[in-house]
Amino acid sequence: MARQVGRTTFARRAVAEGADLGIFQGRPSLRLLIGLSLFCLSFLIGWPVVAALGAAAFWTDSPLLLLVGGPAAYVFSWLILGLSVLLVGPDSARYVRALVRWAVRRWVERAGQVRA
Known about the structure:
By secondary structure, this protein is an all-alpha fold. It is built from 5 helices and no strands. It has one domain (2-115). The protein has helices at 2-6, 9-17, 30-45, 47-60, 63-115. The two termini are 16 Å apart.
């Protein structure tokens, strides 16, 4: 499989250019940091808040707390997630591409060394 991947233009270019992880040495942009923070926040707002509202509704014997607050918190978490994707989008594509290029280069080179 590494041989087949090694024949692709993407892999040949990654090996020829010596794809590395140099992009990760620089400081990330503020936009990327805010986007990643919002991404993490969206997960904290999602199901944990719904579960907490469920517990609070049970203890206070107020089912409307869960019936209204649960979906509202869940939708809000998705809105935060969407905002984070908008913020992180352009920067994350560069980081992911660099990581994939490096991984493909390493994989193709190691597979070549093992078979030689």
